[in-house]
Amino acid sequence: MKKISEGAESIVYEGTVAGIRCVIKSRIQKLYRIDELDQRIRSTRTKNEARIISSASKAGVNTPRVLLIDGFDLYTERIGGTTLNKMGRIGTNERQKIMQGAGKNLALLHSSDIAHGDYTPANIMVDSGTVYVIDFGLAEQTKSVEEKAIDLLLMKRSVEKSDYKTFESAYVHASSKSNAIVSRLHEVEMRGRYQTRTLAV
Amino acid sequence: MAIIGIECSAHTFGVGVVKNGKILSNERRMYKISDKGMIPSKLADFHSEGAGTTIAAAIKNAGISTEEIEAVGYTKGPGLGASLRIGYLSAYTLSRKLGVPLIPVNHGIAHIEIAKRLNAMKNPVALYVSGGNSQILRMVEEPDRHYNIYGETYDIGVGNMLDSFARGAGLNPAWGSSVAKAAAGGRYIQLPYTVKGMDFTFTGLMTNALAKLKSEQLNDVCYSLQETAFSMLCEATERALLLTGSRELVLCGGVAQSARLKEMADAMAKPHNVKVGTLSDEYNADNGAMIGIVAERIFLSKSKIETGHEIDQRYRLDSVKVTWR
Ligand SMILES: Nc1ncnc2c1ncn2[C@@H]1O[C@H](COP(=O)(O)OP(=O)(O)O)[C@@H](O)[C@H]1O
Ligand SMILES: [Mg+2]
Question: Both B100 and B244 in a single domain?
Answer without folding.
Answer: no
